[in-house]
Amino acid sequence: MNSEWFTDFWRYRELLYFLAWRDVKVRYKQAALGASWAVIQPLLTMVIFTLFFGRLAGVPSDGIPYPLFSFCALVPWTYFSTTLTQAGNSLISNSSLITKVYFPRALLPAATVLSGLVDFVMGAVFLAIMMIYYHVKPGWPLFLAPLFLGGMVVLAFSVSMILAAMNVRYRDVKYALPFIVQIWLFLTPIIYPVTFLTPKMKRLLAFNPMAGFLEGFRFSLFNTHHMDWRLVGTSVIVTTFLLVVGAVYFRKTERTFADIV
């Protein structure tokens, strides 16, 4: 990863905005419920989690109403998982564009990462309504929320570059992506708090970068929520590593995209 990579991004920034806006318009163009799916999907998942894990299994929620506890994590998780699925296939789905004109290929997964923030905002609005319903007032940590969201955005972009580049050469990635996302869901503290885990499991959880960012996002909304800053620090380190690896791997392989896509 060098300065030329960042220079290309800046030079083609208008194309990035165009691709991102195109993704926003196309995503729900033929869907009867339109962009409301950005709220419906995490909302229905929250209802299922609340019924089976909150009530039947009795999973604790650190003193936070379980529907709110799970939904506040499902909003960023839905953004992250949807972004991985779509960005992982972004090069394949834009094969005609790649073979006709030159532009930094990383703009395609980056545009998907950027456009997904529209869905996140819609989910966040409904989350705010739920917080009002449950009479939850956030404190000063709310100002930290953009930092944790930024970490998720960088993580999504880093992993998306790796998956998108691999998917060009190995089409098995397309079929493995839903399975990867499903497994990653249960390895992330969405349906359970970090305090529910044993010390050994917490150490393993630290290698999941989404864990620290999600815990931080919860902390920014509920200032009484327990916060493990070491977990956040590990997430930052792992994400930085993935960003460097993703950028290097993507730059190394993008020269061949037009030939084999």
Describe the model.
The chain has 261 residues and is an all-alpha fold. The chain has one domain. Helix content is 73%, strand content 0%. It is built from 13 helices and no strands. The protein has helices at 3-11, 13-27, 37-56, 66-88, 90-93, 95-98, 107-133, 145-169, 172-186, 199-205, 209-221, 229-253, 257-260. It is globular and about 55 Å long. The two termini are 23 Å apart.
Give the key terms.
single chain; 261 residues; mainly alpha; 13 helices; 73% helix; 0% strand
Number of domains: 1
Structural class: mainly alpha
What form results from the Cα inertia axes?
Answer: globular
Q: Name the poorly predicted regions.
A: none
Strand content: under 5%
Into which percent range does the helicity of residues fall? over 70%
The main sheet comes to: none
The overall pLDDT, averaged over residues, is: 86
Order of helices and strands: HHHHHHHHHHHHH
Q: Measure the end-to-end span.
A: 23 Å
Q: Work out the helix count.
A: 13
Rg, Å, rounded: 19 Å
Count of extended strands: 0
